[in-house]
Amino acid sequence: MRLVRFLHRRKVRWGILEEEEIRLLREPPFYRIRLAGINLPSKIIKKFLAPAQPTKIILVGLNYRDHAKELKMKIPKEPIIFLKPPSSLVGNEANIIYPPGVRRLDYEVELAFVIRKAGKNIPQDKARDYILGYTCLNDVTARELQQKDVQWTRAKSFDTFCPLGPWVETDLDPSNLSISSYLNGKIKQNSTTANLIFSPFHLLSFISRIMSLREGDVISTGTPPKVGPMEVGDTIEVKVEGIGTLKNYVVA
User: pLDDT digits over 209-220, tens only?
Assistant: First the structure.
């Protein structure tokens, strides 16, 4: 099931995307999914929004074995986590703004998931019950600011630095999915989630022991090797098998 969030008649709505129509939901799909009994042609929707309503966006650094090998770094014993603010969130086909003064802006393809219901201290074997579904995320990064600051908040937190979408796929096994990025149609990153050091279920359990998770929150699972720079005028696509393609445009 593909869950989409979009603007319709100046209101934010959720729906289930099926072929050429969208089945409207009565309310956001957290905790339960209830149909409104109204179907819309999908072609009339002009703008799809990021398919989440997070109080926080939690990401993981160095979570692919092949990325650690590329950087010649040891495999971490625990997840390395950081945050992006909800104000950084944009959806599919939205612009990524290249901030003035930033010298290098990088793409990072990631598999992300959306929290279905609130929880704290969640056992790993119960983690699946707290996941609404999976989506694509681009962890846009001002690379020289990350290197300059050591800690990552400024480099990761500009407005538009967290493209998410195009939808949430609820029926997916995240254990072995191809994951890739394309810059202006040319492949740049290419790996599989089988290379993840910490699984989505491990991450959810680990993070929930630190902070309470709320419905609509987003957790992203890290990027594979060969991240690289984008320039104004570029088109960046991130793709995850079983989900689809998240496309964004870099603008001044």
Answer: 999 999 999 999
